[in-house]
Amino acid sequence: MTTEPNRQGLRLDDVTVLRDRMAVLRGITLHLQPGQLTALAGPNGAGKSSLLLALLGRLSSRGAISLDGVAIASLTPAQRARKIAWVPQRSHLRAPLRVSRVVASGAAPAGLFSREKNIAARDTVRQALAAADVTHLAERTFTALSCGEQQRVLIARALATGAPVLLCDEPTAGLDPRQALSMLALLQRLAGEGRTIIAAMHALAEVQRSADRVIVLHGGRVAADGIPAAVLTAAHLGTIYGVEPDSTLDFAVRLLASKEVPP
Amino acid sequence: MRWVFAVVAVFAVVGLGLAALLIGHADLADEQLRAQILALRGWRAAAAGLAGAALAVAGVLVQGLFRNPLASPSVLGATAGAALGGQVVLFAHAAMVAALPWWVAPEAVLPLGCLVGAGLTLLVVVGIAGRSDDPITVLLAGVIVATLLAGVGALITALALDAWQIGRALIAFGLGGVAQAGPAQVVMAAPLVGIGIVMAWSWAHSLDLMLSGVDEAASLGVDTASLTRWMLVWTAVLVGAAVAVAGGVAFVGLIVPHVVRSVVGHHHRLVIPAAAVGGAVFVIGADVVARSVPGGELPLGVITALVGAPVFLLLLARARRQGWLA
């Protein structure tokens, strides 16, 4: 589960993302640095999930996407999985698997006849469970967990891949405020350990309080990019979300962002 | 739980093997006939075991590929496609028999026709269902295609009735069953079933990851396009071989994987071999019952359907409860 050196980060150069042969994102040029939690914000349909799916190779794209100088299109699916991990909003897993099995599916397949590989896989799972604070859930059934617990287990699975980049789709959706703040603290910690974390997020107060950088997508393009304090202003939000610029919106964002993380 | 399954499987295989040889209407006391009867029953049991193993593993593959607990080779139309492929080949063989070399026997070309029929049908069903994530879409596509293929099969049989021998062969094949199975059928089908199961097993880890859906599996390193392609190929091989040796035996591919999963869990490294054993045991057992009932032999498919249909309804109710289906 060790994080590889990832000093160059993820680069997108004039990327166009296609969905059903239609361009949903155009001219995306970004450099996403390691050690940062980057929030992707924007109205519904702005292309946040499309950008994440393109980085995963699930949507076709034109332009150059590279990680540490290596074009991700040149990687096999297995190689890519060790570079870029995904934490979906909800898992489609319906089979009643144990949490440790779910996390193990992120690790390299255990060797059928190799004792070393089996031990290595078990160590990876143990470390990933600990890193996502879900060691106590290891023997529980995944499908019987709450949304917040499932979300943490999916993060553990992503960590088990050892990928230096984590893509999270709405990591706090459906979580109560306490779980959401705790999830954000976890993502901040993982970014602090040198990972590149990119999270599509709707709740601007959460972006404000947790993200190192926010990229706002609007109409298939990057509409704003910078530190949250500079981007999430009432004037900016009014233009992008189509609501009246209102100092109360600005006030609400700052008020919610000032909440402390519960212990 | 796994060792329980292993012990039960060993006893079931040994017990059924003996039952398949010893139970039946014919009298084994006649020393002159005994060897012949035992050989006939042995080949018959081998054919039933191969068909059961192949259909059960094919069921595991399509349920894993489509992430759909109600998918099976027959629901997806693959069995009907294989049957039609077999009928076409038998029809063509009979029509051209004078021009063919002597060694091109119907038993030799039948598996090929079944395999191609199953493969083409799966391609059509996948094409119709497209990239839909709705579990019902692929099932409906399969049911519609299967109905169409059964109609075409009936048409071919009707056209062939003028030539009495061809018509009779087609009807016998359409009814299925292992009553006519002998060394030729078993020797043709065994390598296909063996290769199909071993190759399916080699994809076990990817099938495990597919339990979380295509996008998650892809993010975990599964080459989903390649997995889809090969699962369709090995399903076609297994269904083709099974139909060639025993016709369409209903419900094996649907219920055996579920029963096996409830015992050994969801790890495909275990599910695939366990389904092979479970499928073989189920069909050999059904065949013993089919030919031991008083008053003459029943078609094999009747027994599997009588057991399978109620189990299918139970599975449907459970799938709804667990949220697999809306």
Summary, kept brief:
The complex is a heterodimer of chains A (263) and B (326). By secondary structure, chain A is an alpha/beta fold.
Itemize the secondary structure elements and their pairings.
The complex is a heterodimer of chains A (263) and B (326).
Chain A: E1 10-19, E2 22-32, E3 37-41, H1 48-55, E4 61-67, E5 70-71, H2 77-81, E6 84-87, H3 99-104, H4 115-131, H5 147-160, E7 165-169, H6 177-192, E8 196-200, H7 204-210, E9 213-218, E10 221-226, H8 228-231, H9 234-241, H10 247-257
Parallel strand pairs in A: 3-8, 3-9, 6-7, 7-8
Antiparallel strand pairs in A: 1-2, 1-4, 4-5, 9-10
Helix pairs in contact in A: 4-5, 7-10
Chain B: H1 2-22, H2 31-66, H3 78-96, H4 106-129, H5 135-160, H6 164-175, H7 183-202, H8 204-210, H9 214-219, H10 224-246, H11 252-264, H12 268-292, H13 300-321
Helix pairs in contact in B: 1-2, 1-12, 2-7, 2-10, 2-11, 2-12, 3-4, 3-5, 3-6, 3-10, 4-5, 4-10, 5-6, 7-10, 7-12, 11-12, 11-13, 12-13
**Number of discrete domains of chain A:** 2
Q: State the largest interface.
A: A-B, 28 and 21 residues
What is the general shape of chain B?
Answer: globular
Q: Strand content of the residues of chain A, in percent?
A: 15-25%
Can you name the CATH architecture of chain B? Answer: Orthogonal Bundle
- Radius of gyration of chain B, in angstroms, nearest whole number: 20 Å
Poorly predicted runs of chain A are none
Name the CATH superfamily classification of the largest domain in chain A: P-loop containing nucleotide triphosphate hydrolases
Q: How many strand units of chain A?
A: 10
Give start-end ranges of low-pLDDT stretches of chain B: none
**Radius of gyration of chain A from the CA trace?**
19 Å
Q: How many distinct helices of chain A?
A: 10
Largest sheet properties of chain A: 6 strands, mixed
What does this structure look like?
The complex is a heterodimer of chains A (263) and B (326). Chain A is α/β, with parallel strands linked by helices and 263 residues long. Chain A has 2 domains: 1-83 and 165-263, P-loop containing nucleotide triphosphate hydrolases (Rossmann fold), CATH 3.40.50; 93-162, no CATH class. Chain A is built from 10 helices and 10 strands. In chain A, the strands form 2 sheets. In chain A, strands 6-7-8-3-9-10 form a 6-stranded mixed sheet, with helices on both faces. Chain B has a single domain (43-318), classed as ABC transporter involved in vitamin B12 uptake, BtuC (Orthogonal Bundle), CATH 1.10.3470.10. Helices cover 78% and strands 0% of the residues of chain B. Chain B contains 13 helices and no strands. Chain B has helices at residues 2-22, 31-66, 78-96, 106-129, 135-160, 164-175, 183-202, 204-210, 214-219, 224-246, 252-264, 268-292, 300-321. Chain B is globular. The model of chain B has no long low-confidence stretch (mean pLDDT 85). Classes of the chains: A alpha/beta (263), B mainly alpha (326). Chain A binds chain B through residues 53, 56-58, 76-82, 84-86, 88, 91-97, 105-106, 109, 112, 157, 161, and chain B through 67, 205, 208-209, 211-213, 215-216, 218-224, 266, 269, 322-324.
